[in-house]
Each structure stands twice: as structure tokens, then as C-alpha cells.
Structure prediction request, 493 residues.
Amino acid sequence: MINFNIIFDEVKTFFRNFSKNPKKIFDNLITFASNNWLLLIFFFIYYKFASNFFIQSLNLFKAGKGGLPAYYNFLSPLPDFIITPLSITLPFLFTLLFFGGIHFIKKGYLNPGQSDRMSQYLFLLASFPLVLYFILQLVYLNQTDKSWYFDLDYMDEKAGFLLSNDWPWETELEDTRWKYYFVGISNAVRVVIISIILCTIIGIFMGVARLSTNILLSKLAETYVEFFRNMPLVVQLFFWLTILGDILPRFDEMINIGNWIYISNRTVMAPRLIIDSNFFLLLTIITFVGFRFYVYQLDKEGFDDSDEGLRKRFYLWTIIFFLLILFSKIAFTLEQPVLVKTNPNAYGTWYFNGGEEISLAFIALMFGLTIYTSVQVAEIVRGSIQSLPRGQIESAISLGLSPFQRLRLIILPQALRSMIPPLNNQYLNCWKNSSLAMIISFSDHFAVSMTIVNNAGQAVPVFIILLLTYQIGSLLISAIMNYLNSRVTSVKI
Prediction:
């Protein structure tokens, strides 16, 4: 525990010396001010900070408009002759205690454990004015402003609008806002997952290509990185949406691939995958168990990187691929899109019955997120590879490893140790950047939330739900990447 007797002794010594020799104390204060002018500036800033929040908090307890809400009839309003002195003394007292504690820690009277606890107490003390104001203001707004009501009953009401992208669900006007919001989350998650996978593949290839001894390949990769890295994501989204609208044929001239896939500048229609959950579960279990058993048999005497070992693995993946196709024939069925022409001469009346719609907005968002993130991944890969000691690569060359073997067995496994933490940041940015989908009319959960705010008027609770959604998604990505990082760094070099 903190020995408060030391503090009292310091205070008594100060006043004793002041009574004996006041002039010396003033000289010491001038010396202290000249040596700690930066601390005094922060002292003044914190005083203004605390004073502002204390005054606003105390004003909430005044009588009349803008003061104590009538709902809290068990509280009595504070008169001005109490609020005025409190608004002066409380900020000064908190400021004095806060910076007095900082100065006391600097004197070195405390051991490390006591110093840590004292720092925590001082942080709580310093943040008290802000926390007090935040709580009081939140309670006040909850009782006086309808937009701050946290009742979520409005989310159970009918949405009252339509979604342009509702895969894999089907939405109607009678559906609740909750369903629309979850459909928006589904839209955002699927485009982010695809973008993360693609940006990782493209980024690794471009990062390695930038270090290639082939001048043409290296310069092409550098041009790709520099061009798209310096183009804002918003511009890229509009660019891809415009390009897709220009290069794809018109709806009456759509590309028809075997009556299964239709491609036009209005939409892309593909077969809908219908899953039999029981067979799908059986397929997953059989494939996983069989794969793990065979890999165990291959590696029980150590990893075989010879040509024979790689050939066996190629055969393994080929067999598993064909087994997946065979089982998929049982577990999955495809629903064919049917083009309905109610009036063959007016293609504006044509529509599709069945199938799955892939909107141009989804494709543009996927391209934008993938390319924008891939250039960041490429630089991470390049920097991580260049940070490896040259001796590692020279040792791999001396062992007679081919360039691909050096990359796969020596370079990338070691580079992963420094790649994964910054990759985590880029994947989080990809998740958060998906909120720009609204500007190209893609219905993710952010766009759905904005529409709900407009027709329901509950801005604050909707934004809190939105904030929690982004936090949960970010924490899930971080948890996965931290797990991968722990696996990669479990073996010390």
C-alpha cells in the first residue's frame, strides 16, 4: 500500500520551511517553474479541461430549462450560490491532486508496484470530470431527447424499403428492420472475405515480383503498386463501377452461357446453390477425416519435400477434388435462372425467375477492396522479405534448392513472423473500408443503417449497433490473426 505518511510529512515540511523563510520558498518556486514549465502548461490545460466539464455537469442540476429534468423529482435543483463556488473549487482541487501526485511519483519515494498503483489512481482521478459529464449528459438526453431512447422496439417494425442486394436471403417490405440489418451484415461479410483472400494472393505475388531479377516483371509490379496505392478507394470504386457498366453488354444484348449464366451491364445472373444440410455435414466430416488421416500417413516420418513427396501430395489433392465434386453432386443442387420475356419487344419488361443475382455494385466493391488492399499487402511482403538476413537465402542456395523451394520453404515461412501483424491491420482496414459500399449503392449494414436512421429517426441507438458490429468483426479478425501469429512465432529463431 502507499504510505500516505510520506505525503503528510512532505506537506508539513513545506509549510514549516515557509514559516521560517518565506523568501527562500518563493525562490524555490521560481526555480521549480523554470525547470518544469512544460508541466505547468499541462497543469493549466488540464485545469481548463476539468473546469469546462465540471461547469457543464453542475449546470445539469440547475432548475429550469436545460437543467434538472422533471423526471427526476427525487432530486432537488442546486441554487446558483452553490454551483458557482463548486465550479471553481472542484476543478482546482482535482488539478492540484492530479499534478501533485505526478510530482510525488517523480520524487522517487515509491517502489515500482506502488508507483504503478498510484499512476492508475491518478488516471481515474484525471478522467473523473469527463466520465461524470458523460454519464450525466447521457441520462439527461435519454429523458429529454427522443433520438437518445435506447428501446429497440423500432427494429421489430416493418422496414418499409427494398434492398437491391439481398443474397443469400430474400427480403420483402413486410420484413423487420432486424432482418434487413442482418442481410446487410451478410453482404458486407461475404465481400470482405472474398477481398481478403484475393488481396492476400495478389499481394504476395506482387510483393515477390517487385524483388524479381526480371526487370520487366519487377517494373510492372512496381507500376501496379504505385498507381493503385496513390488512388483513393472512393475513386477506385467509382472507376470500377463505371468500367463495368461500359465494357459489359446491354441487357438486350446480354451474354448467355448455356442458359446458366447471363452477363449484362445491369446484372450478372448465375445458378443458385441449394444445400442439403445433412449431406453437406456428412461431406465435410468425411473429407476432413480422410484428408487428416492421409496427411498423417505421409508425414509420420517427417515432411517429405522431395519430388516423390510433392507428387503424392498432388495426387492427394486431385483425389480430394474429385471426391468433393462427387459428393457435391449429392449434397448440392443448382437452380437455373430463367429469363422471362413478358414482352419480347420491350426488354425493360424482362426479368429473371430463380437463379442468383451478382450485382455490379458487389463486383465493383470487391475489385476496389481487393486491389486497394493488395498493394498494401505487396509492400508488407516486400519489406518482410528484405528484412531477412542474406545468409538465410545464401544457405538455401548452397543446399541446391530451386527458387520456388527457397521461397516456399525458407523465405516466406520466416517472413511470416514480421508479415502477420501488419497484415492484421490491412485486413481490419478492409473490413472497415467496406462501409464505402453505400456510395455505389451496395446494401451493406452501414447503408441499411443509414436508411433506418432516415425512416425511423433513432440515430443514436442505430449508430451504437453499428459500432458494436464493426467492433465484433474487427475483434474476430484480430483473434484469427493473433492465433496465426502465435503459431508462427511458437518456434523461436
Notes: The mean pLDDT is 81. The domain at 177-231+360-488 is CATH 1.10.3720.10 (MetI-like fold). The two ends are 42 Å apart (CA to CA). Strands lie at 255-257, 261-263, 268-270, 272-275, 332-335, 338-341, 350-353, 356-358.
